[in-house]
């Protein structure tokens, strides 16, 4: 294996934005696309589809750079993060900040091609993305703040299509807030021992022995709110099939995390995007066959 110092800048930048770990942006793409389909009452058109897929990937990548800059002194004490480009010294803070800025500007440029309401909502989305890493110092449930940042894609999608954010949008937003709380608590369970040593705040630490119960309640609330708000769209059997597959995966997640092993919790987190994919497939097919 080549020494870290010999890696190309491109390789380091791709590592910085977690390019080889698509699960991180897939968990954002599926709920955003569900919102886009629902707001459009079906296929939203190629322009909006491309804007929101690319925008989501780019903003998630920018968020990774911001997170690593903020956590660089903590990451060296966590087994899973000691070799990240900034923490290991292979990429400077200034260099990483420029990568994040460029990605954010490109994403903002994509939003500019839609309605002004979507542009307006993208401003707080960027602010919450920047602020999230710092909430882990003082907020008992930083995953909730992460959910706010992650779910702006739903709000922006409705704003881009309809020029307003209605009750359906906010219900989907809340449903996916619980989804973020569920899968990111699973993620936090992986690092709990290290986070306790360095004084980091996470939902896994706050929930304590009720962590598994909390994750399952979060998943159930997400499922129930999604099913409730979309039932009125009469999407038929494809939608309920997708929801059924999502429910089966939630049960599978319980089997993975119930013993609280690092391996099981990490597998649960890394596969959580399939829940959103199942719901999205049900929504797409439901609108197609309606």
TrEMBL record:
Listed CDD domains: PT_UbiA_COQ2
Keyword Magnesium: yes
UniProt KW Cell membrane keyword: yes
MF annotations from Gene Ontology: 4-hydroxybenzoate polyprenyltransferase activity
Pathway, per record: Cofactor biosynthesis; ubiquinone biosynthesis
InterPro entries reported for this sequence: HB_polyprenyltransferase-like, Prenyltransferase, UbiA_prenyltransferase, UbiA_prenylTrfase_CS, UbiA_sf
Enzyme type, top EC level: transferase
Protein name as catalogued: 4-hydroxybenzoate octaprenyltransferase
Subcellular location: Cell inner membrane; Membrane
Family to which this protein belongs: Belongs to the UbiA prenyltransferase family.
Keywords: Cell inner membrane, Cell membrane, Magnesium, Membrane, Transferase, Transmembrane, Transmembrane helix, Ubiquinone biosynthesis
Cofactor needs: Mg(2+)
EC number: 2.5.1.39
Any GO BP: ubiquinone biosynthetic process
Reactions catalysed according to its record: all-trans-octaprenyl diphosphate + 4-hydroxybenzoate = 4-hydroxy-3-(all-trans-octaprenyl)benzoate + diphosphate
Functional description taken from the UniProt entry: Catalyzes the prenylation of para-hydroxybenzoate (PHB) with an all-trans polyprenyl group. Mediates the second step in the final reaction sequence of ubiquinone-8 (UQ-8) biosynthesis, which is the condensation of the polyisoprenoid side chain with PHB, generating the first membrane-bound Q intermediate 3-octaprenyl-4-hydroxybenzoate.
HAMAP family to which the protein is assigned, alphabetical: UbiA (MF_01635)
Entry membrane topology: Multi-pass membrane protein
Pfam families hit by this protein: UbiA
Source organism: Comamonas suwonensis
Spans through the membrane: 21-40, 46-70, 91-112, 118-135, 144-163, 169-189, 210-231, 237-256, 268-289
Gene, per the UniProt record: ubiA
GO cellular component: plasma membrane
